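Self-study notes.
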Amino acid sequence: MMEALPVINEPKLTSYLFSKASKAKMPLNGTFELSPVCNFSCHMCYVRKTAKEVAAHDRPMMTLDQWIDIAKEAQKAGMLYLLLTGGEPFLWPDFWKLYEQLSQMGLLISINTNGSLIDDAVVERLKKMPPTRINITLYGASDAAYHRLCGADHVFSQVDRAITKLKAAGITVKLNGSLTPDNISDFEACCKYGTDHGVIYEPNTYMYPPVRRDAAMVGKNERFTPKEAAFYKLNAYQKQYGDEAYKKFLNAIIHHYVEPPGLDDRCIDSKDGRILCRAGSASFWVTWDGWLTPCGMMPEPKVEMQGRSFTEAWHDLVCESEKLKLSGVCRDCPDRKLCHSCAAMAMAETGDASGIPTYLCEMVRNMKEIASETLEKWND
């Protein structure tokens, strides 16, 4: 078995800051979705559009000046953390002008990217003003996996070089993995890649239905069945953290509780039916065409940003977010702290924040069955 990685938990200071910000309704964390355009065409993507589709869209892309104005106002309102994402953010024409100004403002900036466009010139520019972290989605450990999932040819070697060059430059890299039937054959190789390169590789087997890209995709995506998603989720945990941590994880599943995910583009779980995650209380997302939303996975609620001040739009978003409630079935479910389903998941799976995301119900049921069977075998 490959060397086990330490379990990564959110720093206590970060948790404290978000706890304070959530109570004060302060926008501590922001995401700027610069563009939906990408040089990959991943089957399960929630936002991708071609340049032609963007040109035909009924709303224009946000401009450099608009992004800078939002950043300044949001920083005055409390924003410290900022994630730049896309599509592929390095394709956005004014990326470097924006990045340099944001860096000079003292914001803690992370960047989500597929890594394929990071060459020597990009690394040199990043070295001058290092981001807090570069999050690269590793779609496989071979060109074949990238071709199947992303429709991109001969790019794994480019991504590999980018990761190596970033690390050599002292820039922190994290690898995210979107696991689907198209790339699961590369999963073990991806785990080994992360270990061999000394970087965190965090795979995810749950793929949101891409309702922002296509409203007809409620409850659908090119993804695993709930049973497969459960199996690979547990399999991934064991390979990442080793048997000892895996056994503790299985016991936690049996006892109806696993730790919620931490910072970045993730949420903290909800309680008592009210949406108490960071989205809409301490965190926000601005779409490429100028809507302010609680979370990039949600088509609603959304508040107009173009032509308005950030402060006014944030106030409206907080009010709209407070109206969201989960289903009473989810609220009272004994597995509530296993699935960590949220308004975004419920909306993507059912079309309504108060709907019951049965895909997650099935996934959790299978996780419990696997945990029980595995522990029973180990205890024999």
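Second protein, same conventions, sequence then structure:
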Amino acid sequence: MWSGPPAERAGSMKQLQIETMVLGMMATNCYLALNKETKRLFIIDPAAEPERIISKIDALGAEPEAILLTHGHFDHIGAADALRDRYGIPVCALDEEQEICENPENNLSMMCGRSFTVKADRFFHDGETIELAGMQIRVLHTPGHTSGGACYYIPQEDVLFSGDTLFCGSVGRTDFPTGSMSSLRDSIHTRLFTLPEDTLVFPGHEESTDIGYEKRYNPY
């Protein structure tokens, strides 16, 4: 069985070191994207268990700069407030995702028996390029799983954080509030499959993949 791109590819990144933590009841991938030269990092989708994330950041001897949300579902935002308070850093999301982040019905937290929300400090726009930890990051609006879903692409490292838009061999569900399968297919084909085929993809759940593999084998 294919098991994702070779491990040595991730190890050959120029400046970027990616630490993956699988957290919470939905086994969500939280990523710490560390600039090996500056020891500064940003956090993608702090799902839950803030104490574990803090312990890992301390072990890396790193300084966080921001929290990036790919979307506002409860299993991607659970530790955001605690980390914001701990480090004094902003929580960031795409502007179209505000209604998901701030509504416990839409962010599905009511399903887990504890309603909660998160208010972003900064909202990105589609196509915007931001700089964090010495990295240039391109914000891609990829609606479908949610209306304001975002992917974060780092061209200099050929790395994409895809949230629940694109998985290895699959895609995110579209039967939740603001979801749309037609929009998801369009996002994948017009936004993600136009990236270089050797782009490493780090999704919101399960193992990593790359764009070339998904173009050839993903049934969606």
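Instructor comment on the second fold: The chain is about 25% helix and 30% strand.
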